């Protein structure tokens, strides 16, 4: 039978599991991370892990929930919703998200490996996954639908519009293929301008 932990021990071990999970998930992903690796720094048996999280997917979701609120504030509230001009709003969103991907390893992992979020969703109950409803991806999709309804954005399938924006976010992964590194900032700026101009309707 797994040992009982005091409240202080539980808090310490929970923090350690979250810290270890963050490092391992960002470095090698959900699938390649084993329970043995997750519990090793805490010096406890695998069976004891389940006193803290139902599965490694539950640990992964907890990390995503912790990140989602702060990321949403930066890329949605402070960027996408910071101006009534739709084209400029999309520009700000893309630039803020590119900054986020450059500085936030876990969010970079989530953006480049959507299959991991799908794996988490399959393993967990609907109520727990619903906690992710207020996240940047959901907020962006809602913004796109509102913009189309108001005639501010092209009338393509909203999922396609989101996909076009996500394509811009994948460019940094292949920056070394774009030639002179000194020109990379100009390439990104021009790409953002072209994409946002193509997605938005000119008033008048």
From TrEMBL:
PROSITE patterns assigned to the protein according to its UniProt record, in alphabetical order: HTH_TETR_2 (PS50977)
Record's keyword annotation contains Signal: no
Pfam families found in the cross-reference section: TetR_N
Protein known as: Transcriptional regulator
Superkingdom classification of source: Bacteria
Gene3D superfamilies reported in the protein's UniProt record: Homeodomain-like, Tetracycline Repressor, domain 2
Keyword GTP-binding: no
Keywords associated with the record: DNA-binding, Transcription, Transcription regulation
InterPro entries: Homeodomain-like_sf, HTH_TetR, Tet_transcr_reg_TetR-rel_C_sf
One Gene Ontology MF term: DNA binding
